Description:
The chain is of the alpha/beta class. The protein is built from nine helices and eight strands. It has three domains: 8-103; 109-177 and 271-306, Periplasmic binding protein-like II (D-Maltodextrin-Binding Protein, domain 2); 182-265, Periplasmic binding protein-like II (D-Maltodextrin-Binding Protein, domain 2), CATH 3.40.190.10. The protein has helices spanning 8-29, 32-45, 59-65, 75-103, 119-130, 148-153, 200-203, 232-240, 284-306, and strands at residues 109-114, 138-143, 159-164, 172-180, 182-187, 246-249, 260-265, 271-278. The chain has a five-stranded mixed beta sheet with strand order 2-1-3-8-4. A three-stranded antiparallel beta sheet has the order 6-5-7. Helix 5 (119-130) links the parallel strand 1 and strand 2 (138-143). The termini are far apart. The model is unreliable at 1-5 and 43-74 (pLDDT under 50).
Amino acid sequence: MIRGSVSAKRRAYCTVIALSMVLEDAYAHMTGPVRSVSEAMFEETLTIRGEDERRSSGSAALMTRIAPSTWVSTSARAEVLLREARNVFDVAAVAVERSRRTGQADDRLVLVTKAGASHEVLRDLLDTYAGRPGALPVEVLLCELGEQRQVLRQGRADAALVHAPYDVLGGFDTQELLTEGQVAIVPEGHPLARRPHTSLAEVAHVPDLPIARWPRHDGSYPPGPGPEVHTQSEIAQLVSLGRALLVIPESSRAWQWPDHVAVPVLDAPPVTTLLAWPAGARSAHLDGLVRAAADIAERATLDALSTT
């Protein structure tokens, strides 16, 4: 591990040298389809300004493109290279994992979703997909807040259920499933639980019931008096104890405890549940799941029109 006073440029150089070794091994073990996808991802991920823009493939060609002679002598440039090299490490890991699964003739789809989120939508998606010709078994992989992105980047899942505007969607293709309002989850004995609805301004200033704080994408927490939480079980118990409230999509109420009450928050921004998968990696089997998601979105639109 390189620490201390080593310059950003030196750290970037060492990162890229290690990267070349990973890519040499990864590229040698990729199957044809995975290799072509990974080449496109490498080209998109790592671009050094002022280089020859000719397309190339393989780790040797990649190292030629990022040779130290092409660098400028600024630490900022080296920091960019270091960051982008780490991104390519992720790309290589995804390519190796997909290649491994392809080589094992893994006749299944893996769908990752946050535990407790969009339960009814998830069940509808699984049932709709299962009714399509040629449907594969679907393994559901449960995770905590914001972990879907990393699971997809690591190649451990084919697709994920994510939520806009909260989840980071860059680098993924998506298909909308459902757009819905939000509710405040409060303990049943609290005066707010008897209200037919509430507002964001009101729930933000409940003296004895602060809003729980979820981590940002960088792991930090926003300021505020509410407790810091990371899992559904943490916030569920805090709400039950009368120590916090939270605002969540309406469909996420499936996990609420018997002593929780959901109060609609009329002016909360709508939340859209989407099916997401790595950009450019829509296989024939995954296409069936995407089409099932599109069918659900179409039904939801028709249902909304019929009630207006």
